[in-house]
Structures are given as structure tokens and as C-alpha cells.
Amino acid sequence: MTTLSRLWGIVPAGGAGTRLWPLSRAGSPKFLQDLTGSGRSLLQATADRLSPLVGEQLIVVTGAAHAPAVRRQLPEVARILAEPTPRDSMAAIAWAAATVERIAPDGIVGSFAADHVIGDVDGFSACITEAVEVAETGLVVTIGITPTGPATGFGYIEAGDPLPGFETARAVTAFVEKPDAARAASYVASGDHSWNAGMFVCRASVLLDLLAENHPELAAQARALAAEPDRLFELWEDMERIAIDHAVAEPAAAAGRVAMVPARFDWEDIGDFDFLGGLLPRRDGVAVLGSDKGVVVEDGSGLVVHGTDRVIAVLGLHDVVVVDTPDALLVTTGDHAQQVKAVVDRLRAEGLTEVL
Questions:
Q1: Contact at 8 Å (CB) between 283 and 296?
Q2: How far apart are CA 32 and CA 128, in angstroms?
Q3: Which of 61, 20, 65, 25 is nearest to 43 (CA)?
Q4: If we measure between CA atoms, which residue out of 336, 333, 322 comes closest to residue 294?
Q5: pTM of the model
Q6: Residue 137 carries which DSSP code?
Q7: Which of 11, 59, 98, 277 has a CB 3.0–4.6 Å from the CB of 303, allowing a cystine?
Q8: Is the preceding omega at residue 22 within 30 degrees of 0, hence cis?
Q9: CA-to-CA dists, residue 253 to 148, 179, 198, 203, 244, angstroms
């Protein structure tokens, strides 16, 4: 059996994507939607690019409320794990990794978010193939995204020396939290920092053993859940809420047990409308998601999400974001795209949860 044939894909599909409200909702999150105009949802596109690498060895972990929609979109995926309640990324990934460990004790797992946009599938495959080879040595491998600017919305990976015997892999010295603008600029200038996209590849047993070093109860619960699925509700209730970065990646990096393979592909995280607008073709200066029939632009630029039969006219406004849905309308600018979450928080505080 080749190393790559032991690879299992894990796709955590969760979160409401509040910075894309009102397009993304709790009941219809962004990963279930076609946000690129490709005809495939972000989740389906993720499965499409993993399929050549993992075949049928794919596990999707999602919330119980979204599981029926995930099954409709991915009828070919046999293993869909439904979380009773949100528990952050570590519980979901550990549950899936423990499931792989029971099926294939020497299995290697790769965790890939359901809402990333990657156009170069061949470049992605080459990168993951090297990551799997490095993971065979017992290291946790993360994929580093080359920064295109001093973004403050991402965490960063600090890379050390090259790993002998591998094409591009480097040791990881630290994971750095989202920085302020000055530190982000210094990271980009150093050439030794990459964006952390949250993609991890390692042996399933290594991941769970590393988790057990600092969070033994969570590791034990995940393994128990894989062994006795009927205990889901009993075990899930007490599982710790923590992200994989904090639970495994950061302590493992401090111990010299993490490597980084730089991405050989373009990557986008559609975290807000500013990023979304950059992915779509423009007409008269405006990117349109949905039908452009009824969208009229005179001396304007930005993004229009057209989800109703209404005519939308943009006149003399630049960097505008208009998101039109049947029950809610958002008008903002690209510069304020990261602050849409504050609107969602305000709506929730005022009890207007019917539009969330």
C-alpha cells in the first residue's frame, strides 16, 4: 500500500459565516452555497478536489441541522458525522481521526475546511502529496499560504530550516495569532511567515496521541465515540470546545513536531464580501453574484449580490457592497466588510433572530 493510498480526507463543515450575512445564514451557511458562480457549492468543490487524492476515503463532519443538506449535495460520501452541538474544530477533527484510526490504524488524515476556494487542483494535489510524505515521518504537517499582503485577519506560521530529504518542507517554529498591521507587515517582509489556512496532515494516531498529551479527556472521548457511536449524545455533551490550532498545532510546534509545506496554488478564504468581490468577474466596475439582469450601474464599483427580482441601481458609489435577499438588505463598503459580524451581533441583541 502506498503512502498516498492511506490518506483520508476530513472536511469540517461548520460555522454560520456571519461576515457574509445576509447571504450566509445559520440555516444556509456559506459552505452550502455556490459563491463563485461555478455551479458547485464550496463544499462540493472541496470534495471534488479531494476525490483524486482520497477516493472514497472522505469524512465530512457537520452540524446535525446541516447534515441532510450535506447528504443531498454529496450523495457519494458514505461517512457524514453529525455533531449534536458546535464544539469548535478539535472535537470534530478528533472524532473523524479516531474513526479513521479504528478503520485503518496506519491511516493518515488531512483536514481541509469546506469553505476555501482553490482553483489549481494539480498544484493542490502536488502540495498535499508532499505533505503526506512528510507526515509519514510522524510530524504534523500544515500548509502555508504565501501572503499577498499584510493581512490582519489570518494567523501566521513561522517557518524555520528546510527539512532534509523533502522538496519544499520546512520546520515550523511557531504559530502566531492574528497580528496588528505593523506586525503583519514585518511578518510579510521577513519571508519566513505564511498564512495559516488551517490545513493539517498527519497520521491519525499521531494527532490523537498529541491531543492526549495536553487534553487527555478529549482524546479519550473521541476514541470512545469512534468505538461506540451509540454513545454520541452522552460523550459529546462534555467534549471540550477548543480549536485544533490551540489544542495540537501550537504545543506540537513548540516541541519541534510540526512541518510546513508551502502552497503551490492560489488560495482564497471567502471570509467577507471584500474577498468575495475579488473572486467574481466585473461588469461596469461591479462584481455580481446571481443574475445580473436588473442590476444597473452608473459610475460605480463594488459588489452586488442579487437574490431577488428587484432592480438594483448603483449610481456614483464606489467600493459599495449591496446584498439583496428576500427578507434582509445589507448596504456597506468593502472597507467595512470585516465588521458585518457586528451587525449580526446587534440583530441578535435586539431579538431579530428571524433574519439570522
A1: no
A2: 24
A3: 61
A4: 322
A5: 0.93
A6: T
A7: 277
A8: yes
A9: 24, 18, 14, 16, 12
User: Residue 158's closest CA among 192, 134, 115, 129?
Assistant: 192
Q: Are 13 and 82 in contact (CB under 8 A)?
A: no
> Cα separation of 322 and 304, whole Å?
5
In angstroms and rounded to an integer, the radius of gyration of the C-alpha atoms of the chain is: 21
Q: Using CA atoms, how far apart are residues 304 and 325, in angstroms rounded to an integer? A: 11
3-class SS at 51? helix
Beta-strand relationship, 193-203 and 156-162: antiparallel
Secondary-structure percent of the chain, ordered helix, strand, coil, rounded to 5 = 40, 25, 35
109-127 tens-digit pLDDT: 999 999 999 989 999 999 9
Q: Which residues contact 308 (CB under 8 A, 6 or more apart)?
A: 324, 325, 326
Nearest to 114 by CA among 51, 61, 52: 61
Distance CA 340, CA 24 (A): 11
* Cα–Cα distance, 200 to 206 (Å, whole number): 12
Tell me which amino acid residue 288 is. Answer: V
